[in-house]
Design a protein that fits this description.
This protein is of the alpha+beta class. It is about 60% helix and about 15% strand. The chain has a two-stranded antiparallel sheet. Helix 1 crosses helix 2. The longest helix has about 45 residues. About 0% of the residues are buried. The N terminus is likely disordered.
Length: about 110
Amino acid sequence: MIMKVMDEHLIINLRVADTRYPLRIKRRDEEVFRKAADEIDYKLGQYKNYFTGSGAQALQNSDYMAMTAIQAVAEKVEHKLRAESFEAGIKRLTQELEDYLKDRVK
């Protein structure tokens, strides 16, 4: 019996800032992408309510998108730096433990 392998990808349409974006993603990532789009829309709304600009300096959707992107990337960088710091601490403690055990065996 020959079984047909399901395509691991699908096309979804995500709405961000009243625009639909079709994306081809892995099936297992669908929830992540949908939640990401919801989070982006939420952040855009926050920025639109907080920063309105005025007259010739009125902010456009692209400005709000840039602000949202900057915040998202800054959060990613912060998580990466924390992970690196945590990893360095674990390595340091592991080395201290190994040194201690070496001294005890002698």
